[in-house]
Amino acid sequence: WIVEENSINYHLWVCLKPPLGHSYIPEMDTRDQMPARPSRVRVALECICARGMLLGESLCFLHQPEDQSSFVLRTLCTGSYLDLAKVTCCVQGLVTSAWLLLPESRHCELTALPSSQSCRFQLTGPFKTDMYFEIAFAV
């Protein structure tokens, strides 16, 4: 966190783990090294049919018909790449909905601030300093 004269800023990194049947593959730079700055992350589907059959489930996402594709690919991706703006929008919606269920929401207001690279929120209430929260994502 960072404490300034009239505000407190909290920064939180959240590591996104791929759901079962998916893997995240960061793009390498031209020298086959991890890039220093943010890069595109490809979402690959993995076959888990053997595991699904043991549990009495249907085929995995890799072998499903196209109209029954993965939620991750349909909702959080553009093509087969994670779309940070879509991830940010989805998480902002989840955090905002969850906030309304907390008792603190009766005394404080949580406002989502515009950002396409991270989730940013402002918390206002009966305290004298402004509080800001930023959630950034990593894979």
Strand content: 25-35%
Our count of helices gives 3
- Which shape, going by the Cα principal axes? elongated
- For the record, the count of structural domains works out to 1
User: Would you count the extended β strands for me?
Assistant: 9
Order of helices and strands: EEEEHHEEHEEE
Helix content: 10-25%
Structural class: alpha+beta
What is Rg?
19 Å
Point out poorly predicted stretches. none
Sheet with the most strands? 5 strands, mixed
Q: Tell me, rounded to a whole number, the average pLDDT.
A: 83
Distance from N terminus to C terminus (CA atoms, Å) equals 22 Å
Identify the strand order in the major beta sheet: 1-2-9-8-7
What does this protein structure show overall?
The chain is α+β, with helices and mostly antiparallel strands. It has one domain. 20% of the residues lie in helices and 32% in strands. The strands form three sheets. A five-stranded mixed sheet has the order 1-2-9-8-7. The chain has a two-stranded antiparallel ribbon with strand order 3-4. It is elongated, with a radius of gyration of 19 Å. The two termini are 22 Å apart. The mean pLDDT is 83.
